[in-house]
Amino acid sequence: MKIVPISVPTPFYIGPVNVYLIAEDPITIIDTGPKTKEAVEALRSGLRAAGFRVSDIRRIVLTHAHEDHCGLAKSLRDEAKNAEVLVHEWETGHRHSRLEYEEHRKLLERAGVPDTEIARLRRMYEGVRQYADSFGDNEHSPLWDDSDLAFESGTLRIVHTPGHTPGSCSFIREADRTVIAGDCVLKRITPNPVLSPDPVDPSKRFPSLAEYLVSLARIRSFSPTLVYGGHGEPVHDYDELFNRYIRAIQERQAQVIKLVSGDGASAWEVALKMFPGTDDVHRFLAVSEAVAHLDLAHTEGKLALELSGAKEVYKPL
Ligand SMILES: [Zn+2]
Ligand SMILES: [Zn+2]
Fold this sequence. Notes:
The chain is α/β, with parallel strands linked by helices. It contains 9 helices and 13 strands. The chain is globular, with a radius of gyration of 20 Å.
């Protein structure tokens, strides 16, 4: 089973995104790139170089529903005459024709983000969402953990690897233990566990970092020989990367615990201290990062958590 990486440009800070073509029947792409002219062109020429056209695509599989990965899914599906689109059920983002603004707003409020900042984040997000088409509920099929995507000469095993987002999935070619991991594994940066409502109970937030640690260990249990990430080069030494991630998470953990000393702090206050001078989308990622680490410290019994009005305050024990 031939896996062909295609680099597709994005308008985002992260740089190009990797789309993976599985070049055998049924012709499948994993992720799509954002909805921009440049991205479609890059994808077309990547497909052409491998001897295919968009109309040959029978299956569009999404590692997760961030704009840079899912943006073109709908238009490609239409052009490929109703190719099947598959995404995990917990990946609520662009599956629906609306994003869960209300749920996100509540999560941000609880994290202590001021109203003016929430309004700013929302305006900023309006700018980002133009890079993806949304899906109606009957326009995609679910990816099931531990089941297979069948191809002519073999299978890719679907592995639910939540953390970066609740519905993130990875795909394993078991014959040689090659993994396509989306934004769960990135060579040069530690992926952000993005602040999300819990898909099972949207009034709660998803325990992203705790879930992410389980996902990283699960990928490790397959002893991967090669991991293709959502951005950047593939990873040949997963164990080294795994250990680096764990160290980075422990260091950040120690840092957030220090930052709430004294009277305690909200996730927003911790984010401002951890990443002074960030703005735009990075401010949302900074809050996500702070919440993820504070929640993990709280779960592990290293911090207390109290409600002060609508706002949560983390306190030293
Ligand atoms: Zn992502
Ligand atoms: Zn990405």
